[in-house]
């Protein structure tokens, strides 16, 4: 016999027969698990929330799924119960004595609504409470994350945009939907973001546990990856940058409530959830994209490895080997110094500019000189090499400030460095 009390499933699971878990043993197993409410509203993308649920439960989160009645037309309650290990209810009339419409939100460490339809965004923005999910949203005092999914016309409608702005103003994190194939043959903005990326974003939000996102209402521009300068149709000059640090910066900024533009140069990485990605190839393309995006940005973080030089000429056909002859020398010309240009221009008053410096020797000496030369506010300096930083999951750096400050970041996940960078940026942004 399994307990079917939806209000107390997190705190007082019933004993079951046959030597199964008792109340006490279950409580010991779940006492340290973060409690996540996964709200699912009625869109075709509801089936993708199963993957998000699986990632949350397998990573040690205690998840309570609260679907709307419409969501159950796409995925049944049995699926949600089986994947979460918790009972499922959609309305407030089950086990009324346990007041589930209040308790579920009160006990949550994080609420994620995925997918979030235009309907649920409207109800949340206007404080409506006609089912268990909308009641939960009103009682939650933890961070709330919405992952919208709908047709482009619905997302772009002024009513939806006003509702999103209202929710963000109140401290909710509403990520931007992805661009891609929608229901039927339509394509555009409104696609449900990759569940793996929503999971990564949810973990970042949960790790901070702050209801009011520190970068809410801010626009940040981040460059990531490594530029490629074509030599001929099949060859290019490039570097070892994977883009992982820039993507960690983008995910962390999104988790803090920022509107994020990620200018991405050639990485083989999935788009972070809630981030506008602008793909580029060369240093000149990256410059054009960053300059355009920076016009209304509160902060610009240049994490991309931008080629200092490019071939002076481009061969329209593949350069052939010639027997008995050495190849012609490749003449190089300088690429634009994007970091120095952005730091000098500052198109928006109070704009913060952050640079990255990859050094192989005299790291801090060269970093200080570069900080002064580029004119940026912060410079993240790290030692690089064939087996250091590039492509790795971890990073170690010192963040130098134009005010003379030095903030060391010990070796650890690239998200930890991203947290330090945004802490320093947020402290310096003018209100």
TrEMBL record:
Binds 1 FMN per subunit. Keywords: Decarboxylase, Flavoprotein, FMN, Ligase, Lyase, Magnesium, Metal-binding, Multifunctional enzyme. CTP binds at residues 308, 318, 336-339, 356, 370, 374. InterPro entries: CoaB-like_sf, CoaBC, DNA/pantothenate-metab_flavo_C, Flavin_trans-like, Flavoprotein. Residues 1-219 are annotated as: Phosphopantothenoylcysteine decarboxylase. GO terms for molecular function: phosphopantothenate--cysteine ligase activity; phosphopantothenoylcysteine decarboxylase activity. Residues 220-431 are annotated as: Phosphopantothenate--cysteine ligase. It catalyses: (R)-4'-phosphopantothenate + L-cysteine + CTP = N-[(R)-4-phosphopantothenoyl]-L-cysteine + CMP + diphosphate + H(+); N-[(R)-4-phosphopantothenoyl]-L-cysteine + H(+) = (R)-4'-phosphopantetheine + CO2. Its cofactor is Mg(2+); FMN. Pathway: Cofactor biosynthesis; coenzyme A biosynthesis; CoA from (R)-pantothenate: step 3/5; Cofactor biosynthesis; coenzyme A biosynthesis; CoA from (R)-pantothenate: step 2/5. Residues 215-427 form the DNA/pantothenate metabolism flavoprotein C-terminal domain. Coiled coil: none annotated. The keyword Metal-binding applies. Its EC number is 4.1.1.36, 6.3.2.5. Residues 35-198 form the Flavoprotein domain. It comes from the Bacteria. SUPFAM superfamilies: CoaB-like, Homo-oligomeric flavin-containing Cys decarboxylases, HFCD. Transmembrane segments: none annotated. In the C-terminal section; belongs to the PPC synthetase family. Catalyzes two sequential steps in the biosynthesis of coenzyme A. In the first step cysteine is conjugated to 4'-phosphopantothenate to form 4-phosphopantothenoylcysteine. In the second step the latter compound is decarboxylated to form 4'-phosphopantotheine. Catalyzes two steps in the biosynthesis of coenzyme A. In the first step cysteine is conjugated to 4'-phosphopantothenate to form 4-phosphopantothenoylcysteine, in the latter compound is decarboxylated to form 4'-phosphopantotheine. This is Coenzyme A biosynthesis bifunctional protein CoaBC. The lineage of its organism: Bacteria, Bacillati, Actinomycetota, Actinomycetes, Kitasatosporales.
